[in-house]
Backbone:
């Protein structure tokens, strides 16, 4: 059995390759829910949905999120309410796009949660609906929220203001300076998937953002301890390539939060819990600096621009796991 | 100022005519919310929306509910979840159609209510968004639910089972026998619009279902008392024409709940609170039986098949109010 710690797009693409290498039913993916939010009264789990839709071959290939062949009628109709809402209201958030087909997933999740189902149960049901055989597990059934603190006065607010991850990521397009990230609720939440971490043959940390996609999982009680115990069986793939993120704010956040924005910076973050780091060929010259952190270093082509490249990265990753 | 007690379609069509006769801003409509429901986590207020959409000339003219030029993408996408839900779950209710554009209204209402706004505030904001100048007031800001008790074993459940109004009306197409209707929460809810009932020049009871559209309003503390005090200024329009309802279960419910299914049965229900009943020309021969209930009886063309006929009925109704 393989266990994967997963965020959104990078993890989804890795898993898409992994199911070509090992049976989907032998894979457990523990997925970040720190990005989860409630909009229009609907429970939205962006990373879970990105992974599910990708594995179902239903993801929009251009946007990288949401469903393909999507329409935006409900969102369009929301615009009329923007001027009617009173000052201070955040109703009618038109900055977070939800496609019409995608809405059905949130409808189902919201209805099941309100019936008392756990997020884990609902996730299993949604996976079944989409024909996804990978065992997707939300990192917790409890509410944990990734909160970002602004470093300076900007469009999102004054320095020191805390905003939700989706406000940071979507509303402000991660273009504002950040001085802190924390995971509200993490200290009291119960981690899921600890059994998978104990029993998995190999644990893969997907090429997701270490600071806002993997860090929420690690903030939960017992996760870092479980990973440390299995350190030799843990292999991570660096989401930083040649000092930059392929997508998203990982590079910017690494720098802003005081980390080296390179595979070496990633190695330093993961060294306590992970024995092997897979880095891109573009960073081959940094392999010995990674090894200097006490990790094995594997050089591979990590840019998953096609399904074949995802599959190849999955194969190389598993082959190099001890 | 004119105050109208309103349910859904019949009231909406009457109001559409009334705004041709008196300025919209001089009209307060107190609208039934006993049909309100929560689906997919969204707060749905069917009668409020039917009235709003009709007054905004945005209603679908064929269906009589929802928005015109509507699409059903989200509903269509919900179908995949039906087989995944566990037994006993009522998530993914595909029997209640919500159009994609219509969803935006429920999104806005749900978000505002969750921010702490009252239903009355949200209703005012939604009316503003749709350019509706009639002052629409939900009958209460509190939760009141119309509950229907089945008279015999049927597709909806065994005799004695209580189901929500929308299950009765939409899911089972009001084709099941009923032995009781009650309004859960009505005894403790605070009625809205009592000031309008006191100060209005004329109070109109729209041609809505007396037992499930007008009765919820009357079940609220103070409403019947306020109407009784103004009895001479209250004029009702019978929704029963020649012993039948134009649409919906009013005729069936009148019989099942032990009332005469005729304008005389309507007169008996309204006599304590209403001085004048407008009946259709088809029932002219029953005028003296209506008057025998202690009411004035006005005979008019009450079938509002066109906007012009709505306007004419509104004019005749106001002219005959004392």
Residues:
């Amino acid at each position: 059995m393989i266990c994967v710690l997963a965020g959104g797009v990078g993890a989804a693409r890795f898993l898409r390759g992994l199911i070509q290498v090992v049976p989907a039913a032998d894979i457990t993916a523990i997925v970040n829910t720190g990005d989860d939010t409630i909009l229009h009264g609907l429970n939205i789990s962006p990373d879970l949905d990105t992974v599910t839709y990708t594995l179902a071959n239903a993801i929009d290939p251009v946007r990288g999120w949401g469903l393909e062949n999507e329409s935006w009628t409900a969102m369009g109709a929301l615009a009329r309410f923007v001027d009617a809402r009173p000052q201070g209201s955040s109703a009618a958030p038109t900055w977070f796009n939800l496609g019409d087909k995608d809405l059905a997933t949130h409808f189902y999740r919201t209805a099941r949660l309100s019936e008392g189902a756990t997020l884990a149960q609902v996730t299993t049901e949604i996976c079944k609906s989409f024909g996804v055989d990978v065992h997707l597990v939300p990192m917790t059934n409890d509410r944990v929220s990734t909160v970002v603190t602004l470093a300076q006065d900007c469009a999102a607010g004054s320095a020191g203001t805390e905003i939700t991850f989706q406000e940071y990521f979507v509303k402000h397009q991660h273009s504002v300076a950040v001085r802190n990230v924390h995971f509200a609720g993490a200290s009291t939440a119960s981690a899921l998937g600890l059994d998978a971490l104990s029993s998995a043959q190999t644990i893969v940390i997907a090429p997701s953002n270490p600071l806002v996609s993997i860090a929420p999982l690690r903030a939960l009680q017992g996760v870092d301890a479980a990973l440390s115990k299995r350190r030799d069986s843990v292999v991570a793939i660096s989401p930083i390539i040649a000092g930059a993120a392929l997508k998203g704010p990982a590079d910017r956040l690494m720098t802003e939060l005081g980390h080296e924005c390179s595979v070496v910076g990633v190695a330093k973050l993961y060294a306590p819990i992970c024995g092997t780091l897979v880095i891109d060929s573009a960073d081959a010259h940094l392999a010995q600096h990674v090894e200097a952190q006490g990790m094995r270093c594997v050089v591979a082509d990590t840019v998953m621009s096609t399904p074949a490249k995802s599959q190849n990265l999955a194969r190389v990753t598993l082959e190099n796991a001890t």
Notes: The CA atoms of residues 267 and 290 of chain B lie 6 Å apart. The longest strand of chain B covers residues 178-184. Chain B has a mean pLDDT of 96.
